[in-house]
Amino acid sequence: MEVNETTLEKISNYLHNVIQNWEAMADNKGLNPIDRKERRQRVLEQTDKASILIDKLINRQEGRNLSPSFRSLLEQYFEQLPILEPNVDPGYYESLLPGLVLGAQNLSVLESISEEKKNIVIVGRNGSGKSTFVNQLTNSGLSNLVVLPAQKVLFFESNLYRRNDVNVKSYLEENQKSVNLDFKQDGIQVDKLVKPFTLLLTALIKDLARQSTEERQKDVKDRQPSKWDKVVEIWTKIIPDIKFIEDPDDRKPIPVKNYKEYSINELSDGEKSILFYIGNVIMAKEESYIVIDEPETFLNPDSYNRLWDELIKARPDCQFIFASHTIDFIAARRNISLFWCKSFLPPTTIELVRVDSNDSLPESLITELVGSTRDILFCEGKKNSRDYQVYSNVFSDFTVLPVDSHDNVVTYTKAINQSAVFNDTRAFGIVDGDALTEAEREKLNSIAVFVLPYNEIEMLLLSQYVVRNVLESKTDKNEIDNKLKVVKEAVLRKISDEKESIIYDLTKKTVDNKLRQSFIHSKNAKNLTSLTAEVDEIPGAIKTSEIIKRVTEDVTSALTTDSYEKALKISTLKQILFSEIADVKIMKGYAQFAIDRIAISATLQKNLREEILDFNHVPSLKETAAESNRFFQ
Fold first, then answer.
1. How far is Cα 177 from Cα 487, in angstroms, rounded to an integer?
2. Residue 169 pLDDT exceeds 90
3. Angle (nearest 5°) at CA 367 between 366 and 370
4. Which residue has the higher pLDDT, 3 or 364?
5. How far is CA 508 from CA 202, 430, 488, in A?
6. What is the pLDDT of residue 308?
């Protein structure tokens, strides 16, 4: 069937016929006027809910290139509409309405991604409605809409009531749905929670037996793999040391490891999850939507990456929709479309925003950003670096993201603040001082990137209030001032002794920055001769002698004042000052202990916050998001 506007109109007409048939049957049954009025009102309300949604779909379909999965979903909804039986009780039509409404609601929700043909990953902040969105897609009666929940009870119950009545068709219609909401219901029957896993395995083994019997009866020479065969094939690629034999009497698989049989319930949670996922994906109808909430649950990264790679490869006809917040899982997906669930208000109000990775913002970073409810603070280094350890404690009201380099901090901060997608998120950056000039600092400030008043984060750990805080936790209070004085004198002496080394370090950093910023413009270098000339001009443009002169003056000025803090701010001696002074005169492992003190001391965090960023000169951190847009333009 070609799914087009005509198909949707048939669905709309069907819903209107429900009302007409109900009224005819209500008249035929002679309902009393009061009862008839109340029941008719409920019927109208329900059919209106579905009709309004279908009519909106009709109005929006013209010229749209729908994905095969969405077309299949529309077909399924239409084909599964119950026959409007004549001469039945009006209650029959009333019983149809909840399913019709839920199906229309699910079509409406999925319509926002109806043109997307790639597999999809949906990310979102906690509380954004990501899992609620998945739950909304359940119980629709559409057998080509498969929902695999995050919460699941993976227990096989041989004595489950009417277990042997199940087959592949009935399982698809009744059990590929979320049980997330079941966990939230008081008094829920255990049978209902264990039912999906039990019936999944039963249906697969019964289907194997059915196919084997049919092929034997028909004397089929080239036996086709059964659904269970396909499950085992993928399972073996993920967990090769566990085999299965089939119990034809009890209709269940029996795991075998090292020639020893054991119960299916003795598999680990991760192993049962893998079996559950493989079975459901293999059993899904052609061109199904397969919706998976938290697909990494119970699994380690190696297992879930191999598993989903194999399942996607096995079902290229289906469209997978993953709802996840695990960065490693998302980063490992290939050829996917990333959507940000900004909000979902059941049953149909959803704000899904497509987020495209680009040269400025890699996909792994985007994933972290959309999961954050706070403003973003980019810093240099990695998660195990001192930069991150300090900033994440001092700026605990921010989402602090280490992004390796100075250039990345600048690029990502600008990209977020100029992004139409992240229009409700503000980004800031902090970079090391690295001998930047006042003009360079002001330029960075103008794009919300702020410069540490020290050349390196390690020098901040040797500032007076950090050293004093550490001493207060380890030294007799009568000795603190004297010990602090000894440390300061030793640090000043070492920085003075290493003056030439510091000048060299700062000059080299400045020259490196200049070289990194030197670009050859095509309009100025149109051939090899002009290219050579452009390159030859770079050393002269850098003006190394002027840099040496400026750096020397800055270092000399800082040391002439005999100021401990000024000396720290120009120092580049992070290794020497720790190994020769802090670790010897204060305590071994000083740097990490200082970071640990920052983590637990609110006073120290406040002092450092004021030292790193002067909030009186950073209006964007105090203003509303709307006002701060001026700051970023």
1. 66
2. no
3. 80
4. 364
5. 70, 21, 27
6. 97
Query: What phi and psi values does residue 247 have, to the nearest 5 degrees?
Result: -95, 105
How far from 379 is each of 328, 368, 387, 418, CA to CA, in Å?
21, 14, 7, 18
The C-alpha angle with vertex 80 and arms to 79 and 86, in degrees rounded to 5, equals 100
**Span 179-209, pLDDT tens digits:** 444 434 444 454 556 688 888 999 999 889 8
Exposed, middle or buried, 92 (CB in 10 Å: 0-12/13-18/19+)?
Answer: middle
The lowest-confidence range among 117-121, 384-388, 595-599, 625-629 is 625-629
Beta carbons of 275 and 282 less than 8 angstroms apart? no
Q: Are 429 and 378 in contact (CB under 8 A)?
A: yes
Tokens of 516: 């990194």
* Overall size of the chain counted in residues: 633
pLDDT one-digit tens code per residue, 299-311: 999 999 999 999 9
Q: Are 574 and 459 in contact (CB under 8 A)?
A: yes
Residue type, 19: I
On whether the CB atoms of residues 133 and 109 are closer than 8 A, the answer is yes
Beta-carbon contacts of 297 under 8 Å, excluding residues fewer than 6 positions away, are 150, 152, 273
Pairing between strand 427-431 and 376-379?
parallel
Task: Say what percent of the chain tops pLDDT 70.
Answer: 88
> What is the average per-residue pLDDT within 274-294?
94
Q: List the structure tokens of 106.
A: 């699910």
Cis omega (within 30 of 0) for bond into 301: no
Q: State the first-to-last Cα distance of the chain, in angstroms, to the nearest integer.
A: 52
CA 124 from chain center: how many Å? 6
CA–CA gap between residue 552 and residue 503 (Å, rounded): 6
What average pLDDT is seen over the chain?
A: 84
Rounded CA-CA distance 364/401 in Å is: 11
Which amino acid is it at 113?
I
The amino acid present at 480, given as its one-letter code, is: I
CA distance 380 to 430: 7
**How do residues 558-589 score in pLDDT, each as one tens digit?**
898 889 999 999 999 989 999 999 999 999 99
Q: Answer whether the bond into residue 347 is a cis peptide, omega within 30°.
A: yes
Contact at 8 Å (CB) between 226 and 207? yes
* Domain map (residue ranges) of the chain: 5-113, 119-354
CATH topology assigned to domain 119-354: Rossmann fold (3.40.50)
pLDDT in tens, 79-104: 888 888 778 888 888 888 888 888 88
The single residue listed with the structure tokens 């008081």 is: 186
Report which DSSP code applies to 225: P
Contacts 24+ apart (CB under 8 A), 482-488: 483/585, 483/586, 486/585, 487/581, 487/582, 487/585, 487/586, 488/464, 488/564
372, two tokens: 């954050």
CA-based angle 192:196:202, to the nearest 5? 120
Q: Read off the tokens for 446.
A: 């103008």
**107's tokens:** 């079509």
What is the Cα 284 distance to its own chain's centre?
25
Q: How far apart are CA 39 and CA 44, in angstroms?
A: 9
Upper half-sphere CA count for residue 202 (Cβ side, 13 Å): 26
Q: Could you list the beta-strand ranges (E) of 277-398.
A: 289-293, 319-323, 336-345, 349-354, 376-379
**Angstrom distance (rounded) from CA 534 to CA 360:** 27
